[in-house]
Structure formats: structure tokens, C-alpha cells
């Protein structure tokens, strides 16, 4: 089955057009049957397609959740471009080396995601080293603990520069690259992913601008999903809960300073009080969800923000 017949078969406006034209009902029914058979033939396989030879860029992947995603997607078959700030180069090189040891291609593209030119260069490096791009994961983010009435303009701007503008730079430049390559098909869509959070569903006290930035990611992802479906590109985000990374060292210290809690107890206490599953998450918990979102198993999923939080927020 060729691409144009698949596109025809999947056309969203199909039903509406039936009512607005005066075609005989028998013609409509027979066309629908052909379409439905074509869709069934194209999309009914229960096997996950191999990701071997596909390439992915993961921002902020020198450590934490980004690193776990990089290693998991390499295990899934992806060739991986590791990104982080230049201060984290040594850690990036180590992750890339580990991926090469798994038999995959890997490269490092240092870039600050707030800078669009650097993001373009990062994508250029990845394409040069690993071949055409298939998946972008805008994972890099920062956190800051602050009372809502003590937030400065600079606090707010920095948070949005990285967590929202940084995501936008990566998603939009990756989308342009995917469209210009012309290799996204209905049965092999390009994938855009970004890091949201549980606080993108319900804000946490002391994390006001962080929470707002993660709500913004959800909104952006919905817009990308709607606008890019016609280019055979899906867009989704993942929303981790309390995951044991260096980001929580910052939260522990900030919450402890403002509440008097022992910094060693903040994470455990929050996890114990809030989660259905009584343990802190690990980066690999998130990487497993991202593996699904980056694979063919999620080709019919778009515009979603998927929680992975051990049962804090229920949708
Ligand atoms: P992490 O351990 O702090 O790692 C984030 C990485 O991104 C760091 O290496 C950081 O470098 C880098 N980074 C920061 N600004 C950047 C920029 N402008 N350009 C490129 N890289 C930059 O964080 P994590 O816990 O793995 O979190 C990963 C993502 O998941 C973030 O978006 C975070 O908001 C989200 N998330 C995490 C949790 C959690 O519980 N850990 C929960 C919900 C959502 P520097 O440290 O040198 O700045």
C-alpha cells in the first residue's frame, strides 16, 4: 500500500464530507468499506516495529531522566544524539561512549536550548553524524523553589526561557527538519516529545513558575499534535512525578529552607504522603514510558501528556 492511499484512507474530514455532498448512500458505504479495509490492513499489526537505524536527539541527557531515556532508546535500537550544556561535556561523552558500547551510533551536540541558533546546530550535528532525524525529545529543564509572592521577573523569565522557549526551539526546529527530510509516513510518523510534569496537572506550592512552565508544555504539545498530524508527525509529553535525580536535591534544599524539614526527609515524606505506590521513582521508570512514546506502539497517540508518577495525579 502506498503513502497516498494510506493518507486517503485516514483522512479525518471523511465523515463530514459525506453529509455535505449528495452522493448516493450506496457509494458512500462502499467507499467507507474500502477505506476501513485499507486502514485495518495497514495498522492492525500487534508487533512493535524495530527502531533500529532511527535517530533521536535527547536534550539534557548527560544525567538523570535524559540519560536513562538515552540508554533505553539505544537498547530499543535508536542511534542517539546526546545534548547538554557545555559545562556537562565530560558526562555527555561518557553517555555517548556507553551507547557505542551497546553497538549503536552516538554523538554529542552541546547546546543551550534557549538559543535557537545553537538548537539548529545541534540538529545539524545529529543529522551529519547519525543520518536523518526521526525523534526529538525536549527533556532539558530546570526547577527553582520560591514563594509565589517572592518571584522576581528574572526568576520567571529564566524558568520560561529554558522550560518553555527551550522546548519550543527544539520542537519547532525538529519539526522543520522532519518535514524537509520528507521521511515521515502515516505508518512511520516522526515523533516530538517533551518533558512536562505532575505539576503540569496540579501545581505544587513553592514551585509556582515551574508548575506554570509545565502547564505550558502541555498546551504546546496539543497545538503541535493538531497542526503537524497532516505532516505525519505526532507530539506527546511525559509527566513524571517524584523521580530521584539531582533536580530533587534542589527541591529538598529549597523546601527544607522554607519549611524547616530535614532536607534528607523532604522527598521521602512527599512520596510517602502523596503516592499510591509507596516509593520514590527512578529515571528508568520514566524511560520505559518514553520508550513506548518513541516507538511504533504509540503511533495512534498524539497530543497527550502521559503521567508516570506512582499514583499521585489521576486522570
Ligand atoms: P536534571 O537531573 O537536573 O537534568 C537536567 C539536565 O538538563 C541537566 O544536565 C542540566 O544541566 C540540563 N540543562 C539545563 N538547562 C539546559 C539548557 N538551557 N540547555 C541544555 N541543557 C540544559 O533533571 P531531571 O530530573 O533529569 O529532569 C529532566 C526533565 O524532567 C526536566 O524537564 C524536568 O523538569 C522534568 N521532570 C523531572 C521530575 C523529577 O522528579 N526529577 C519530575 C517532573 C518533571 P545543568 O544542571 O548543568 O543546568
UniProtKB/TrEMBL annotation:
InterPro entries: NAD(P)-bd_dom_sf, Sc_DH/Rdtase_CS, SDR_fam
Any one Gene Ontology BP term: fatty acid biosynthetic process
PROSITE patterns xref list: ADH_SHORT (PS00061)
Gene Ontology terms, MF aspect: oxidoreductase activity, acting on the CH-OH group of donors, NAD or NADP as acceptor; quinone binding
UniProt keywords, alphabetically: NADP
Pfam families: adh_short
Coiled coil: none
Family the entry assigns: Belongs to the short-chain dehydrogenases/reductases (SDR) family.
Protein's name according to its UniProt entry: Uncharacterized protein
Amino acid at each position: 500500500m502506498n503513502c497516498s492511499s494510506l493518507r486517503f484512507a485516514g483522512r479525518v474530514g471523511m465523515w463530514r464530507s459525506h453529509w455535505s455532498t449528495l452522493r448516493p448512500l450506496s457509494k458512500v458505504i462502499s467507499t467507507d468499506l474500502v477505506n476501513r479495509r485499507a486502514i485495518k490492513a495497514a495498522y492492525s499489526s500487534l508487533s512493535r516495529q524495530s527502531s533500529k537505524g532511527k535517530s533521536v536527539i535527547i536534550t539534557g541527557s548527560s544525567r538523570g531522566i535524559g540519560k536513562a531515556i538515552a540508554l533505553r532508546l539505544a537498547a530499543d535500537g535508536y542511534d542517539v544524539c546526546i545534548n547538554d550544556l557545555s559545562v556537562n561535556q565530560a558526562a555527555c561523552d561518557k553517555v555517548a561512549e556507553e551507547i557505542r558500547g551497546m553497538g549503536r551510533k552516538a554523538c554529542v551536540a552541546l547546546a543551550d536550548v534557549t538559543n535557537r541558533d545553537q538548537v539548529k546546530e545541534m540538529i545539524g550535528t545529529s543529522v551529519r553524524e547519525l543520518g536523518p532525524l526521526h525523534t526529538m525529545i525536549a527533556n532539558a529543564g530546570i526547577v527553582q523553589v520560591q514563594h509565589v509572592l517572592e518571584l522576581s521577573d528574572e526568576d520567571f523569565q529564566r524558568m520560561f526561557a529554558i522550560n518553555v522557549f527551550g522546548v519550543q526551539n527544539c520542537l519547532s526546529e525538529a519539526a522543520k527538519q522532519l518535514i524537509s527530510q520528507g521521511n515521515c509516513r502515516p505508518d512511520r510518523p516522526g515523533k516530538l516529545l517533551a518533558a512536562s510534569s505532575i505539576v503540569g496537572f496540579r501545581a505544587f506550592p513553592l514551585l509556582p513558575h515551574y508548575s506554570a512552565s509545565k502547564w505550558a508544555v502541555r498546551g504546546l504539545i496539543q497545538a503541535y499534535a493538531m497542526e503537524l498530524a497532516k505532516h505525519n508527525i505526532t507530539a506527546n509529553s511525559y509527566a513524571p512525578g517524584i523521580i530521584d535525580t539531582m533536580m530533587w536535591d534542589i527541591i529538598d534544599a529549597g523546601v527544607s529552607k522554607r519549611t524547616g524539614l530535614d532536607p534528607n526527609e523532604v522527598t521521602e515524606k512527599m512520596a510517602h504522603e502523596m503516592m499510591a505506590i509507596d516509593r520514590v521513582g527512578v529515571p528508568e521508570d520514566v524511560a520505559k514510558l518514553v520508550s513506548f512514546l518513541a516507538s511504533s506502539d504509540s503511533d495512534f497517540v498524539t497530543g497527550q501528556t502521559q503521567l508516570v508518577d506512582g499514583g499521585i495525579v489521576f486522570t
